[in-house]
Amino acid sequence: MTKRKLSWLIPVVLLLLLAGYRYYRDSSQQAADMVQLTVVPFETGGGWGYKVMVDNRSYIYQDVIPGIAGNRPFRSKDDAARVGQAVVEKLMAHQRPTMTLTELLKMQVAGVQ
């Protein structure tokens, strides 16, 4: 290689290395900032409920159907898990983790009228 080509190649390689390092650092920081949200259905005395876990710690404990009058548990594990997942999706979208009667009816949750 001539000196002219070498003098051009060194700054380009250094720039690529710097860009790669910054990308790696930023992506690893984003991964560290993310939290893990999971839904855990559980059995109650008269039905089902769910917990929303944030990094394996209980964040929301819901042992009755939210958004309706009274204290009625979910009739099925599947209903509890589906509503819990809807709450998680709201949290991930930076929305309030509430459920309305309309949303529950649309999801066809058993026992909701």
Automatic annotation (TrEMBL):
Q: What is this protein called?
A: DUF4907 domain-containing protein
Task: Spell out where the chain crosses the membrane.
Answer: 6-24
Instruction: Tell me the organism's taxonomic lineage.
Output: Bacteria, Pseudomonadati, Bacteroidota, Chitinophagia, Chitinophagales
Q: Does the keyword Membrane apply?
A: yes
**Species per Swiss-Prot/TrEMBL record:** Chitinophaga fulva
One short Pfam family name for this protein?
A: DUF4907
Superkingdom of origin organism: Bacteria
Q: What are the protein's UniProt keywords?
A: Membrane, Transmembrane, Transmembrane helix
